[in-house]
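Researcher: Next entry: ParB-like partition protein (Sphingobacterium sp.).
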Amino acid sequence: MAQQRKTGLGKGLSALLNDTDEVVKQTAASQQSTAVGIGKDVPPGSISQIKIDAIEVNPFQPRTDFDAEALNELADSIKLQGLIQPITVRKMGNGNYQLISGERRLRASRIAGLTEIPAYIRTANDQQMLEMALIENIQRENLNAIEVALSFQRMIDECNLKQEELGDRVSKNRSTVTNYLRLLKLPPAIQASIRDGKLSMGHARALINVADVDKQLYIFQEIIEKGLSVRKVEELVRLVNDSTYKNKAKPDTKEKPLSFEFQKIQDDLASKFSTKVKLNVKSKGGKGTIEIPFMSEDDLSRILELLDW
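Model: Predicted structure:
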């Protein structure tokens, strides 16, 4: 009986290897025949070789930043190994296709000099296109927290989803979604540091618990200059919030809102100095003042350096 099992296993393995060889041959033949008949109708859901020149970029692609070095590395890999993971497109008519996902692979394939590329053919309307592109973007391993937050916000705004529905789509609980969305309320300088990897998600989660922008920017500078750990930042946030509660000032009198032009100048100055800048403009004569607060002597020195003082 043991001998029969051994023989049976050997036959099964041999058959499997033969079947695999046959599948490879059939796949190669299929791709070759598809490449020859590019202009013909391709059934949705299939994998086919399609001309790169026939693919237009997905207008709903949320990602705009592509690392040139990483693209060139992928292009070198494609030259050696070919494109292992097909892109996903939808058919538009007249032999043209629109990219649903895989723009990085498409760009690298162009750099590698490919004229044709393997692709999944799908049928999708604009709503589905946006959702698929955003979800694929969110699922990338090297996505930074700001890119995730922006993708979440787009899904809410453009796909008309509630936070609970968004959580279901991306397999994350509501609190996680909420924490990412709160990052978009941080000052531009802090968001840029999160995007560039200078600030971790742990640091960012601590900072979003500080309501005052001046204090957020002060703590941010402390993190950058002193390399504070997440735990130290959380302790500093507790101290700042406790101090704010004890020394709560009376609410400021309501001021006339700035015009769009002056508001933009104020925001640009706040980003430049990494602190909240206040622009006071008089209603007549175009006169006014600029207030740049500082939180410590070191913070003042930093601002003076930016002013070339």
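Model: Note for the record: Residues 1-40, 249-253 have pLDDT under 50 and may be disordered.
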